[in-house]
Design a protein that fits this description.
202 residues, alpha+beta, Protein Transport Mog1p, Chain A, three-stranded antiparallel sheet, 3 helices, 10 strands, 22% helix, 36% strand
Length: 202
């Protein structure tokens, strides 16, 4: 074997050894699997902030019922009228034009609808027709039901437009009703909502 062939043979042999050594190193290198994206942890459910007590935009009078442990506010210029002894109506107030008017009823019933019908019956009225109804929360996190409805009263030529808000305490429904006769005073949803939402409990 000539020197030049020997040199080529040595060179090829050395190249093979180096390649095998590199291949061995590569196989020893740990293969890392790509990390699976972390599952999004469920964000903690945000707690609903409890509503703050309503501060009326109008000058208000406050009615406090210590027997049943609640209070409600209404426009100061509205006049309180006497209620029949033994009636489930505990407060009755009217504006200068007799409408809008407001009355508060306390009765026992299984559902809001039954309590509302009982309140209207106590006001010597009838034919409750609920247009809309929703569950809301009052100050202190008290669950309540608000409804917009119509009812009939023998003293009125047409059905009255009304809003009621009812909440339960100690097994009794407290129903706050505000009503008007459209011929004299239009239904003011913003004002009526503000009035009924002043209902609060001790």
């Amino acid at each position: 074997m000539t020197k030049s062939r020997l040199a080529v043979f040595v060179l090829i042999f050395m190249s093979l050894i180096i390649m095998l050594a590199l291949a061995g190193c590569a196989s020893e290198t740990p293969v890392t699997e790509p990390e699976a994206p972390a599952e999004d942890a469920e964000a903690p459910a945000e707690e609903e902030a409890e509503p703050e007590p309503v501060v009326p935009s109008f000058e208000a009078s406050k009615y406090v019922n210590s027997e049943f442990g609640f209070s409600v506010q209404y426009p100061a210029e509205w006049v309180e009228n006497p209620v029949t002894e033994g009636s489930t109506i505990v407060l009755y107030v009217v504006s200068e034009d007799k409408v809008p008017l407001m009355f508060v009823n306390v009765n026992e019933a299984a559902t809001f609808e039954e309590a509302l019908n009982g309140a209207i019956l106590a006001a010597e009225s009838s034919d409750v027709e609920i247009d809309s109804q929703e569950e809301i929360k009052l100050a202190g996190g008290i669950n309540a039901t608000k409804a917009i409805f119509k009812f009939k009263n023998p003293a009125a030529p047409l059905a009255l437009d009304a809003m009621a808000l009812g909440a339960q305490k100690d097994g009794k429904w407290i129903i706050v009703n505000v009503a008007t006769l459209g011929l004299i005073a239009k239904f003011d949803e913003t004002l009526f909502t503000e009035i009924v939402s002043t209902l609060s409990f001790d």
